[in-house]
Design a protein that fits this description.
The structure holds 2 protein chains of 2 kinds.
Chain A (H helix, E strand, L loop, with lengths): L8 H5 L3 H35 L11 H33 L1
Chain B lengths: L2 H36 L9 H34 L6
The chains are: A mainly alpha, B mainly alpha.
């Protein structure tokens, strides 16, 4: 455990309304950051498979690997948006 | 503890836990990926070539993660600015 005091239930009850509101905001942001990081893990896994196809000969990405990774993320995003749009079009059609 | 220090302590702990979780996840992915890439046929002991491959693969995977993360965040920002998520 680190030197700083841990937070108890009693401490939490001592939070002012302003600090509670601050906390909610910080935690919502933190949740967003975590979501992006989780997505980054998923995309790195998917795009590594597509882009790093040869044997490992260096500890850095060469320019074609780097380009491929960036394109891979962009295209994955495109597919997500396209799927979403088509899905809502299908939903609208089914509604008629 | 006063309210201000309780708030700060909570924030600090939440961020720390998230970072630990994130690096654990990264290490897990690195192990999977680099084992796959570097140990084609598991022998009776690890070779120097396999070790070199594993460390290079690790650094490369981290670079890939950073690039993917940057690209992803830039794209999200771009989509927010153009209103894709607002409707």
């Amino acid at each position: 455990m680190d030197s700083q005091a841990t937070v108890s239930q009693a401490d939490i009850e001592r939070l002012s309304d302003k600090d509670k509101a601050d906390l909610r905001q910080v935690l919502a942001k933190e949740e967003q950051r975590n979501f992006v990081q989780q997505q980054s893990h998923t995309f790195t896994e998917i795009c590594w498979k597509k882009c790093i196809t040869s044997n490992i000969k260096s500890n850095v990405l060469d320019s074609s690997e780097g380009n491929c990774l960036a394109n891979c993320v962009e295209r994955f995003f495109d597919v997500t948006i396209t799927t979403q749009k088509h899905l809502s079009a299908m939903r609208n059609q089914a509604g008629h | 503890m006063d309210s201000e220090s309780v708030k700060k302590a909570i924030i600090r702990q939440v961020i720390m836990e998230a970072n630990v979780q994130n690096s654990r996840h990264l290490v897990e992915k690195i192990n999977e990926t680099c084992f796959d890439k570097c140990i084609a046929k598991p022998g009776s002991s690890i070779s120097n070539g396999e070790k070199t491959c594993a460390t290079q693969c690790m650094e490369k995977y981290m670079a890939a993660w950073n690039l993917v993360n940057q690209t992803y965040m830039r794209r999200v920002q771009q989509e927010i600015n153009s209103g894709t998520f607002s409707s």
